[in-house]
Amino acid sequence: MDRFDVTSTVGDVEAQNTKLKNSLPFSLGRFHISEDYGFLLPDPLKELSHYYMPWMEIANNLPLMIESHQLRVRVDEMPLLSCHLLKGHREQYLAHLLLSFITMGYVWQEGEKNIPKVLPRNLALPFVEVSQNLGLPPILVHSDFVLSNWKKKDPDGPLEIRNLDIIVSLPGGESLKGFILVTLLVEKAAVPGIKALTQAINAVLQSSEDELLQALKQMRTSVVDMIKALRQMHDYVDPAIFYAVIRIFLSGWKDNPAIPEGLIYEGVSEEPLKYSGGSAAQSTVFHAFDELLGVCHSKESTAFLHRMREYMPPSHRAFIEEIHSAPSLREYILSSGSCLLREAYNQCVMALAELRSCHINIVAKYVLTGATKAKDGGLSPLPGTPQALAARGTGGTAVFNFLKSVRDTTMEGIIKQCD
Ligand code: HEM
What we know:
The strands form two sheets. The chain has a two-stranded parallel sheet with strand order 1-4. It has a two-stranded antiparallel sheet with strand order 2-3. Helix 5 crosses helix 6, helix 8 runs antiparallel to helix 10 and helix 10 runs parallel beside helix 17. It is an all-alpha fold. The relative contact order is 0.13. It is globular. It is an enzyme of class 1 (oxidoreductase). It catalyses: L-tryptophan + O2 = N-formyl-L-kynurenine. One of its GO terms (cellular component) is cytoplasm. Keywords: Dioxygenase, Heme, Immunity, Iron, Metal-binding, Oxidoreductase, Tryptophan catabolism. InterPro entries: Indolamine_dOase, Trp/Indoleamine_2_3_dOase-like.
């Protein structure tokens, strides 16, 4: 079951999308995308008002409560709180972050054994309500895990890993923190590329070849910086910890053999609901670049990637749709006859494919090598390493075929060079 089955705000979200589409010119502000932070939530809130203390107390102690098998008991005793005191989008995002982390801990506290069939109403009801308010599904999404889950140690210091921390944690210690923060650095490295993307669209609208050339060069540099940021995963995340501890807490209840029926959200629906787990496939950056460059993936991959868009904040989803409906950059370059533009476009496509190759190497290391190292290593507080997830991604995809296909179809975007 998808987002659309439980949200009563779909009409609002669609209306918002149409409104966004009809206002010009093409700029980041229209989509609540920051000039400085891109898709990251700028300066996320770290605390809610005193009324929400029961959520905060649990969310702030998740690793300990999960490792001591106490979380479910604590959640069952939690009072049912109303969402009416949540003011503005920053409080709503923090509430979604807290409730999504508590939910993942609740479901996966015992690993793949004794998985609960029901999410209790004192967690399910507010989680679904805040999800409806934000236009997000009631499960942990990339926007919780990374975009809203960061703070600076020194508020005046730089946005660099040594000055960063996460707001809410799960088991996995320093590796979990590194996994979140390196992903954040990839999002940060994408910011100049996202700005360049809007410049490229405006340049096409104004038929300005010089501006387009500059924008494409800027975008390529940004993708190269994303590759450098992504490689830092090796420095901060231990593959065995990733495999044995972290991965399961990102798992969802759709296409997951460990929880084939899905999860009943008590008080929301008597039928179990199915949602995919958290994944950076829900990062708007890659979708936006693909749309700008006119990259076409296979039918199957496109179906998965488009489903992941439903796990993004609605304004970010609207941004991708707006790029899709803008005049085609590829067609413009082909008809311009400019060899310089072709070259700059191809450089962007190649850099994006290289970013995907780098990602494939990382997935191979963290999923395959992690599996070997984690075997009987006693690293997980959970009873037994999750078996059903062994060769699968957190979103339940036949992972390597999918990732390679997406990389290869990116390369197919290359335009034949001038003779
Ligand atoms: C240890 C690190 C990582 C692992 C093990 C990993 C694993 C995966 C897996 C298994 C998938 C398949 C889809 C799914 O099952 O959800 C996937 C997809 C994807 N991941 Fe990662 N990932 C990692 C880090 C990152 C980072 C840091 C980014 C960038 C922000 C990223 C971006 C993507 C994207 C965009 C996709 C969709 C496929 C594509 O467009 O190429 N991943 N990842």
